[in-house]
């Protein structure tokens, strides 16, 4: 058989096909290599860039750690704590700015996240520990500097006394140096010896009496209004409120017979940092454990004058206070203190000046009165046996005063002085209450359903959570109105104003509470309310008792306000539920609103404890005993002029004026009218 060869054209086409396939394969391989090469190079560049970023971050972190470690190595522990606290405060400030910036419902979740971060910073135990360490270091530094300053001042006084004895005959020394006192006339020889042996601060001569009985001096000063200084400090709203109440009571009873001035004594007469007491109080209010330790410090002593805290405070502020009284001692007729840390310093300064003048403090004719503004418990610093009169608001404080050495003859149980809107305890008629509710923006109602929530002047406590819990509970009940007074806590007021409260029923009006800041007409809101939810502040409790409001106490300042809770609960005027459980607070309010008999019973107990005329009684007693302002026309109209006339004649006999001294024509006419 013969083989058949393929045709020539077919072979050429086969070889060309093979060649084309090889060429295509080589092209594909070349492109793939190029792609792989490009991908490899791109990946390498990316890894290199990522490595640079990662290395830069690691280097930056390590550099930052090294810088911080080196900086901290050169800082004391106190400076490190201050740096960390400052950084934390700055971060909190930035977060709060961001929360305030993003308002509206669209940024609700964002705001909640930032608020949670803020709360984490505030609840951080390390930050609290650093703050506590800073306060302890500051206190120890103040103690050390106070003793050093006292030692330095004693050395300067000794050197000055020696120099004065050596240069006493030199006219140049007399003319080149400023006078040591503000005497109006030269001192007697015995007074000079006493002054050289005692303090360089003396009582101005115009403050001293002309004779042994002081009748000439009294006759001279009685031609002008009696000048009264009321000393307080803005460490909380209660001290200023009591000072304003006493001022109003004095003006109401004696008019132009008295000239009253309210003085923030710590800011005016005391040096830094004691002049920053209000700011320190606001800070410590957010750290209850620290405040409790400060309260319990030196409580084992019998008198505040014997404590290290008082000795440090007096030695540090002595010069400043004495300079203040060198200016004002000659002008004043009465000093009233409504703060526990002030009257000791005042009495000490007056005794220092009287010692320099060779007289007793009682001979100065400048009495000092203390009005206690705590209700259920009081700090040791409230009581000083050297003061002329002490006014206490409750039996518990009365017993504490006796325990700490105050004579019973100086103690007066009168109550807590409150603002003028609380001087009347008469219940308001239902019609008038409805009109007042409508005037204040509330819905008039005859059943008890208006809840007043207050957080004190500074707005301490879990005010936000308690307000939300009570509001939600009232929404579920289907009745009730809520008034929230936030005080100076502007952050809580703004948050509650922006909060969306759920409707009671679809298609009906929304539940809208009345959100307020710091208000001056608290008496009107208490009159319009049916129950009060507040912190255990003595002023708020006393005001609620006068208005007959059941009190639900939710928080207290440790030490200072602990006794107020037992005062309310043991007398059946309210209850205590901590604000850490806002749902329980809301449940208690719902229980009260549903039981009108229980609210009526608590209201009666509250009115039984009320003392609405405390401010008028305090001012009447102190002015009648210490200023001799005479009798009041109100008492004359009530037919009590006979006994008062007899008392006035006896007082004038003891003062040496004489029993035959006739009354003024006005008093004689009033006496005849009263006799008829």
UniProtKB/TrEMBL annotation:
Residues 239-417 form the Diacylglycerol glucosyltransferase N-terminal domain. GO terms for biological process: glycolipid biosynthetic process. One of its GO terms (molecular function) is 1,2-diacylglycerol 3-beta-galactosyltransferase activity. One of its GO terms (cellular component) is chloroplast membrane. Its main location: plastid. Keywords: Glycosyltransferase, Transferase. It comes from the Eukaryota. InterPro entries: Diacylglyc_glucosyltr_N, Glyco_trans_28_C, Glycosyltransf_28_UgtP. Its EC number is 2.4.1.46. Transmembrane segments: none annotated. Belongs to the glycosyltransferase 28 family. This is monogalactosyldiacylglycerol synthase. It comes from Effrenium voratum.
């Amino acid at each position: 058989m013969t083989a058949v060869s393929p045709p020539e054209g077919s072979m050429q086409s086969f070889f060309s096909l093979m060649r084309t396939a090889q060429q295509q394969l080589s092209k594909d391989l070349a492109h793939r290599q190029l792609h792989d090469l490009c991908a490899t190079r791109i990946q390498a560049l990316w890894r290199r860039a990522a490595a640079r970023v990662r290395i830069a971050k690691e280097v930056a972190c390590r550099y930052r750690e090294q810088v911080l470690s080196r900086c901290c190595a050169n800082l004391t522990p106190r400076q490190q704590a201050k740096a960390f606290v400052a950084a934390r405060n700055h971060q909190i400030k930035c977060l709060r700015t961001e929360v305030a910036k993003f308002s509206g419902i669209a940024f609700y979740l964002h705001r909640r996240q930032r608020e949670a971060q803020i709360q984490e910073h505030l609840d951080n135990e390390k930050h609290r520990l650093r703050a506590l360490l800073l306060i302890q270091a500051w206190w120890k530094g103040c103690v050390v500097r106070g003793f050093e300053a006292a030692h330095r001042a004693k050395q300067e006084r000794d050197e000055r006394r020696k120099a004065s004895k050596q240069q006493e005959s030199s006219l140049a020394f007399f003319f080149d140096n400023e006078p040591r006192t503000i005497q109006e006339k030269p001192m007697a020889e015995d007074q000079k010896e006493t002054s050289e042996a005692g303090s360089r601060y003396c009582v101005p001569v115009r403050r001293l009496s002309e004779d042994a009985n002081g009748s000439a001096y009294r006759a001279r000063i009685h031609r002008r209004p009696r000048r009264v200084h009321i000393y307080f400090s803005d460490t909380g709203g209660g001290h200023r409120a009591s000072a304003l109440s006493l001022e109003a009571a004095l003006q109401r009873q004696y008019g132009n017979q008295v000239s009253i001035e309210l003085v923030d004594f710590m800011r005016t007469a005391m040096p830094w940092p004691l002049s920053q007491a209000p700011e320190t109080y606001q800070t410590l209010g957010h750290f209850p454990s620290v405040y409790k330790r400060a309260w319990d410090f030196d409580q084992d002593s019998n008198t505040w004058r014997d404590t290290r805290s008082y000795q440090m405070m007096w030695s540090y502020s002595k010069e400043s206070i004495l300079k203040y009284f060198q200016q004002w001692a000659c002008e004043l007729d009465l000093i009233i203190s409504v703060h526990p840390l002030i009257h000791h310093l005042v009495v000490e300064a007056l005794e220092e000046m009287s010692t320099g003048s060779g007289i007793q403090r009682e001979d100065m004719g400048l009495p000092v009165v203390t009005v206690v503004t705590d209700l259920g418990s009081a700090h040791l610093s409230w009581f000083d046996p050297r003061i002329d009169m002490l006014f206490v608001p409750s039996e518990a404080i009365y017993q504490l005063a006796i325990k700490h050495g105050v004579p019973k003859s100086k103690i007066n149980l009168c109550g807590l002085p409150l603002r003028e809107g609380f001087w009347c305890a008469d219940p308001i008629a239902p019609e008038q209450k409805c009109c007042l509710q409508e005037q204040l923006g509330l819905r008039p109602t005859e059943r008890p359903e208006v809840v007043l929530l207050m957080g004190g002047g500074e707005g301490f406590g879990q005010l936000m959570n308690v307000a939300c819990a009570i509001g939600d509970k009232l929404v579920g009940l289907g009745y009730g109105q809520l008034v929230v007074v936030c005080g100076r806590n502007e952050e809580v007021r703004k948050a509650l104003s922006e909060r969306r409260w759920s409707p009671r029923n679809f298609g009906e009006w929304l539940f809208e509470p009345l959100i307020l800041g710091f208000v001056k007409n608290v008496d009107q809101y208490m009159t319009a309310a049916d129950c009060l939810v507040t912190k255990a502040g003595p002023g708020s409790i006393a005001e609620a008792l006068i208005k007959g409001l059941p009190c639900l106490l939710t928080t207290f300042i440790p030490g200072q306000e602990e006794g107020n809770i037992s005062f309310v609960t043991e007398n059946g005027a309210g209850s205590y539920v901590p604000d850490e459980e806002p749902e329980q607070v809301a449940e208690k309010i719902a229980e009260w609103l549903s039981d009108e008999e229980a609210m009526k019973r608590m209201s009666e107990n509250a009115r039984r404890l009320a003392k609405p005329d405390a401010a008028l009684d305090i001012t009447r007693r102190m002015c009648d005993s210490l200023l001799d302002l005479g009798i009041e026309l109100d008492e004359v109209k009530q037919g009590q002029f006979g006994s008062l006339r007899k008392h006035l004649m006896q007082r004038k006999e003891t003062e040496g004026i004489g029993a035959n001294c006739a009354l003024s024509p006005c008093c004689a006419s009033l006496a005849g009218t009263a006799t008829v």
